[in-house]
């Protein structure tokens, strides 16, 4: 189990990193215990993620909402698990395996920051015309990707180019999972 104090401390570290304060990295360590507890971030983000995805489906609603949400939940679990597994090998390949636990604590808690930002933007964007909403969502997505690049560079102690490669690989992996889920949803 995780304490509320640890959640607040970890999110505070992720927020410091979001403000480009490298001292936010001090909120994370190299322990396997905190690594496993950082996956509570997935539980915190889940309701916001489902709300965001449901909102994005309003223009073309699925035929069966129950099936859509069920697939969404499976998609979500796969995305969180597969990235953790892929990064074991990628971190080792980059000779950064010793920083894996710290990186993943940072990454997981950063998802709370990024998901909350996306959720708040969608709430505030109610009533915007479609073109403005799309532009805003692209801006938020770009901001989150830059944030992930920054924290990857710091947490794994890699170059900017290597961090960009990690973020790009994660983006492709998530796109592939989402594409497969969308295909299954249409069946």
Describe the structure.
This protein is an all-alpha fold. The chain has one domain (4-186). Helix content is 78%, strand content 0%. The protein has seven helices and no strands. The protein has helices at residues 4-18, 32-37, 40-56, 65-93, 100-124, 130-156, 160-186. The mean pLDDT is 92.
What features would you highlight for this structure?
single chain, 187 residues, mainly alpha, 7 helices, 78% helix
How are the secondary structure elements laid out?
Layout: H1 4-18, H2 32-37, H3 40-56, H4 65-93, H5 100-124, H6 130-156, H7 160-186
Helix pairs in contact: 1-5, 3-4, 3-5, 4-7, 5-6, 6-7
Number of domains: 1
Q: Can you write the helix and strand succession as a string?
A: HHHHHHH
> Helix/strand-derived class?
mainly alpha
Number of helices: 7
Q: Helix share of residues?
A: over 70%
Indicate the proportion of strand residues: under 5%
Distance between the termini: 38 Å
Number of strands: 0
pLDDT averaged over residues: 92
Shape: globular
Largest sheet, strands/sense/barrel = none
The stretches of 5 or more residues where confidence is low (pLDDT under 50) are none
Work out the oligomeric state of the chains in this entry: single chain
Gyration radius (Cα, Å) is 17 Å
